[in-house]
Specification:
Largest sheet of chain A: 6 strands, mixed
CATH superfamily of the largest domain in chain A: L-amino peptidase D-ALA esterase/amidase
Radius of gyration of chain A: 22 Å
Largest interface: A-B, 67 and 67 residues
Catalytic activity (chains A, B): L-glutamate + acetyl-CoA = N-acetyl-L-glutamate + CoA + H(+); N(2)-acetyl-L-ornithine + L-glutamate = N-acetyl-L-glutamate + L-ornithine
Family (chains A, B): Belongs to the ArgJ family.
Number of domains of chain A: 2
Strand order of the largest sheet of chain A: 13-12-11-14-10-15
Oligomer: homodimer
Helix content of chain A: 25-40%
CATH topology of the largest domain in chain A: L-amino peptidase D-ALA esterase/amidase
Shape of chain A: globular
EC number (chains A, B): 2.3.1.35, 2.3.1.1
Enzyme class (chains A, B): transferase
CATH class of the largest domain in chain A: Alpha Beta
Strand content of chain A: 15-25%
Number of strands of chain A: 15
Main location (chains A, B): cytoplasm
Distance between the termini of chain A: 20 Å
Order of helices and strands of chain A: EEEHEHEHHEEEHEHEHHHEEEHEEH
Chain lengths: 406, 406
């Protein structure tokens, strides 16, 4: 199941970024499960990664390599997360990097490895290494569709974004692909995102922009509250456009680029939620009137994670009592329940500590019957405002996750 | 569904505590949905309540009445929570108290009201008031079974505890009944508990004992992470035993009484979990080696609330990767993943940052196939130790909560 329309777009090429997907037979024979990115010399790369203390081996390696050398290749496998694999996992991730580096006369630090799939199984590194020559030969600027499909695990559809802006007669392209269906939460769960542009951006500016964009997008989505060991989001600037390098987070060109890059992140993040495991509803939780950002996020996540609310959403049941209960236990200090107002889309359902006088069950039912729902909460105590995106909790979610390893 | 054997025990009478259940037709005609406790003069009463900011009207009234006057009656209705009902809800709860007070020549502050059921619907106060005379007439020391059944909502079985100790030829009885199936979490979700003894205990000692016992029991259970608006736990000491009053938390008699009262709380709390909505597994999450209590609880709740772990439990799948992922994102600062050890019952599954060398899938499968499972986590960084109890997440949970209002 998946909610709404997120058709895979026509992906413009990004000069300096070639990619492909090949089949290593990691989990299922014939499935294209190894994706390779080749970046032109001079490309700048930024990354943000999971905060999970049990971060996967490739995450550990990525962080080290990003700090050490100019990145020229990204290699991603689906079907195995190489997580909780101890010292052997690190060696396996390094071996994958080394195989590419040797064939191209680079240092292994110039390759970033990524893995997604089952946790705790040894990475079948020989299978991956065996298909690297084929992948190196096949990379092409037209490879975005194949790459988007190659990184999928329980995703039911490939996720992509592509947009162009023109600046001084130069076309700047921003492309993105992502995967991730279950286990999505703040700080990004088994979620991989790759956004690339041909713009020329200094690395520190690129890194700060990625942090801002990830915070507004992948760090604001949640399906089941679990944060994975492998989440990674990479932003690439190949620099192939004939314009001066953007060296500070200022100016009209930076602003235009920033807007599109944030748009790409939010679109991909919402695509992930809409394809959440077993999702039948796409739900925005919009919390305003908070004393600070954390109050809004605490309330937002309490609502977005409540299994009682999520099952009510699945049942299209306007059970607003469960929403106020979640607001009440979110831990906002000295919350005045009488000042809280809750809307379902534009229907006022709660005010003055109880059901709004104007509210009728029919109004609530009409909203809940839709596939896209906004739960709007005004805490009535400040100016902070945050939005999260989540899904309902269905039989299908239980089935997918009870069956995942079988 | 319900896990394990928690047969309703033979309930000894507690001198000074009479109770009954009568039918007011609140939700279903004929169901006995109003329970009345009558306490002998001189009874001491202690209470702990939900921390939810949207606490229900009866909770607000209970707290006020407990502080104001000697309590003589408790009145509980199931089928309607009288929560998020604003000012009218308070008036309705008070009207219920007033009806009992008038018939018995007491102040309304001498009555404690409780409600459990659907949130946000007006309390059908006239229906309740109408059956109070019948309830007053019917109360009996033999009424425990009826009362335990009368407070149930989605519970599939009544929950009771009864035990006696002898002190200086005097028999001291500790009885308890409780309800609560879904929406159970720390700080007690839609959970009501009533524990009574004929011992003679000063109110401050009783209150401190209740806090300790609730913290070790009802505050350590979780089914779906939601904390309700109505949770209440009451401890009554009727003082009908012919012994001096216990005035401090010291001495052999206090210790013996304390042990039984804590045992009662833990037994009732575990009974609630074992009857969790749709539960097919009873799961203890035992976290040791924490730097402090909060580290243990953060890790315990991350594991106990993870839908991915709960669906794996439902599938009897020893998917230990999901367990380490949850430990990793629990937010323990500077957690050294290499020092964490995880057992399923007595089977070591994780050490040195990955799967234990000795572990086999068959061992894990054997544990997970059982109905009662302990997930033992040693954080390897201190001496703190906490245990939580929870359940799996099944299709049945989704069905119950998607259907609850229909």
């Amino acid at each position: 199941m998946a909610v709404g329309e997120y058709p895979f777009p026509e992906m413009h090429p990004v000069a300096g970024v070639k990619l492909t997907a090949v089949s290593a037979g990691i989990k299922k024979p014939g499935r294209r499960d190894v994706v390779l990115f080749e970046l032109a010399e001079g490309s700048q790369v930024a990354g943000v990664f999971t905060l999970n203390a049990f971060c996967a081996a490739p995450v550990t390696v990525c962080k080290k390599h990003l700090a050490a050398a100019p990145i020229r290749y990204l290699v991603i496998n689906s079907g195995n997360a190489n997580a909780c694999t101890g010292e052997q996992g690190i060696n396996d991730a390094l071996a994958t990097c080394e195989s590419i580096a040797q064939l191209r006369g680079l240092k292994k630090e110039q390759v970033l490895p990524f893995s997604t799939g089952v946790i705790g199984e040894p990475l079948p590194v020989q299978k991956i290494v065996a298909v690297i020559p084929e992948a190196l030969e096949k990379v092409t600027e037209q490879g975005w569709d194949d790459a988007a499909a190659g990184i999928m695990t329980t995703d039911t559809r490939a996720k992509g974004f592509s947009k162009q802006i023109v600046w001084q007669s130069q076309t700047i392209t921003v492309n993105g692909i992502a995967k991730g269906a279950g286990m999505i939460k703040p700080n990004m769960a088994t979620m991989l995102g790759y956004i690339a542009t041909n713009a020329k951006v200094a690395q520190p500016v690129l890194q700060a922009l990625l942090r801002e964009a990830a915070d507004k997008s992948f760090n604001r989505i949640t399906i089941d509250g679990d944060t994975s060991t492998n989440d990674s989001c990479i932003l690439i600037a190949s620099g192939q456009v004939d314009l001066p390098e953007i060296q500070t987070a200022e100016g009209e060109l930076y602003q235009q680029l920033r807007d599109v890059i944030i748009e790409a992140h939010i679109f991909l993040a919402k695509s992930i939620v809409a394809d959440g495991e077993g999702a039948t509803k796409f739900v925005a939780v919009d919390v305003s009137g908070g004393g600070d950002r954390n109050e809004c996020l605490d309330v937002g996540y309490a609502v977005a994670h409540s299994p009682l609310i999520k099952t009510a959403l699945f049942a299209s049941d306007p059970n607003w009592g469960r929403i106020v209960a979640a607001i009440g236990y979110a831990g906002v200090k000295d919350l005045d329940a009488a000042k809280v107002r809750v809307h379902l889309n534009d229907v006022l359902i709660v005010e003055n500590g109880g059901r709004a006088a104007s509210y009728t069950e029919e109004q609530g039912q009409a909203v809940m019957s839709g596939a896209e729902i906004t739960i709007r909460i005004d805490l009535g105590r400040g100016d902070s405002h945050e939005t999260l995106w989540t899904t309902d909790l269905s039989y299908e979610y239980v089935r997918i996750n009870a069956d995942y390893r079988s």
